[in-house]
Amino acid sequence: MLEKSQINTCIADLVGRMAPIGLDKMSGIKLMNRTDTKFVTNKQKLAQLLEMAQGQYFAQQIDESRIAEYVTTYWDTDDYRFYLEHHNGRAPRQKVRVRSYVGSNLTFLEVKTKNNHGRTKKKRIEVPGQEVTAVRERADEFLDGLVHMGLDDIHPTVQNHFHRITLVNYGKTERLTIDFDVEFRNFETHHEAQTGQLVIIELKRDGNVPSPVLDMLRRLRIKPSGFSKYCIGSVMTNRGLKRNMFKPKMVRIRKLVNS
Questions:
Q1: Which is the CATH superfamily of the domain at 4-257?
Q2: Each residue's pLDDT tens digit, 202-214
Q3: Where are the beta strands (DSSP E) in the chain?
């Protein structure tokens, strides 16, 4: 087993051995109307998965980098409508966020909607930056058409910062995002939280097309497990929120964080 100080280097080396794919060739695999399956594991298992995936997946590369940096701010109502929709298992449900792709210097205001059949649709518009004044320029018309409220009805609640590896299978029928080093900051409580060795893997594909990675995940005993960065980040940084449905998940996450 690798030491914690070695595991990040190992992950970077394994991703570096994969054939690169640029953003220009990713345009046909955006999967904006898709089925998402999430898996939660740790960095040791991730290194094993990347070793197994050699020769079957491209690694997205932007400006010579294959590990991208993201910053996301989630917005919610005063009574935490979007958080509670998820906690209470409501479907359809929505989330509003502003996501910055640091390496590309791009920021989008996004609305994610998950329907009763488990399919996720994402609508987004580009905005100048994360600041409220930057988001406000185009927000109200966009939000009113999707969540039936304006920017004055919601406010920033939790921000996360993380690193992402994006893999695409050679058949270009699926995208695999791998998030790690996730850190949270709560705008209301001013609390912060880190996730240690935790890794969130998300398989994104249209329908149930065959997936090379599913067999690899099974062999590594990495099972599907829902994970919402907004909800988990909220629970980790705000003790005043309703959390009963997330308690079993938090026990498992703590084990992975400290592994």
A1: Hypothetical Protein Pfu-838710-001 (2.40.320.10)
A2: 998 866 678 899 9
A3: 19-21, 33-42, 57-60, 68-76, 93-101, 106-114, 119-126, 155-169, 174-186, 192-194, 198-205
